[in-house]
Amino acid sequence: MSTDQEINVASHYTTDNLLGRIKSALVAAGSDPENLQAHELKGVDEFHTGGVQATDDLLAQLSISNTTRVLDIGCGIGGASRHIAAHTGATVTGFDLTPDYITTANALSDLVGMRKQTQFLTGSAVAMPVGDNSFDLATMFHVGMNIADKHALFREAHRVLAPDATFALFDIMQTDTGDLTFPFPWAEKADWSFIESPETYKSIALKAGFTLTSERNRRDFTLAYFDKAFAAIEKNGAPHPVGIHLLMKDTAAQKLKNYVTEVKAGKLAPVEMIFRKS
Questions:
Q1: CA–CA separation, 229 and 250 (whole Å)
Q2: What are the structural domain ranges in the chain?
Q3: Short-list 243, 230, 251, 236, CA closest to 29
Q4: Is 113 exposed, middle or buried (0-12, 13-18, 19+ CB in 10 A)?
Q5: Which region among 17-21, 84-88, 237-241 has the lowest average model confidence (pLDDT)?
Q6: pLDDT above 90 as % of the chain
Q7: Which of 14, 41, 107, 259 could form a disulfide with 45 if both were Cys (CB 3.0 to 4.6 A apart)?
Q8: Whole-structure pTM value
Q9: Residues 89 and 51 sit within 8 Å (Cβ to Cβ)
Q10: CATH homologous superfamily of domain 4-277?
Q11: Per-residue pLDDT averaged across 130-136, rounded?
């Protein structure tokens, strides 16, 4: 049963007619939704800082083959899952708390012919809807900010991963003290946000039975990425039709502005961490 916090999170990410709006945006961008290639979704289906470049930067540090069993925790509308499957041949299972995202993820995989390589389930990261020791790799892109009980998150990740498996995450973390200005892409207000420091992540992971193998702060990458994105909007007068604004309701611009402001101030930063199940 979902907790009140999980209901709030799912509500935050639920938008009206998401699949229909994505299809309309594709048409506006000159794409045919009924004859679609996966790369044409990249503006919207990688809902994390840096988009597909950030995905590739994390994946470049991992060993993935067509036999790797991959779990995408908090998969959103399935962009990273499809990207992994398309570029490695792996079969990817994703799950997310938001039913609207899962419906959309499965529909988009159908549209790009990737339903056999990807499957998407509704479920919670603190009670993952998969069996013990059943995956060789778990990925997680910008999910921990919505999870209050990170001890349960890491315990569940440890449970579902096979021995010596890898848990690779890319989360926004608190890198300095100070009040934060809301809303952000992951939360409308402070009591929906569960930002923690890198030290807290590492401590919790160690207690759950993981060993840290790699860590990288992506602050500079983030600022360069948004400088380029904002310059393009200023030049063109509007964001590309197929963009993450489709996932953030009518407060998208303010959410992104607040986020970038706090990254510039040094209070927030996206951080990669790669763990091995001990």
A1: 18
A2: 4-277
A3: 243
A4: exposed
A5: 237-241
A6: 83
A7: 41
A8: 0.93
A9: no
A10: Vaccinia Virus protein VP39 (3.40.50.150)
A11: 98
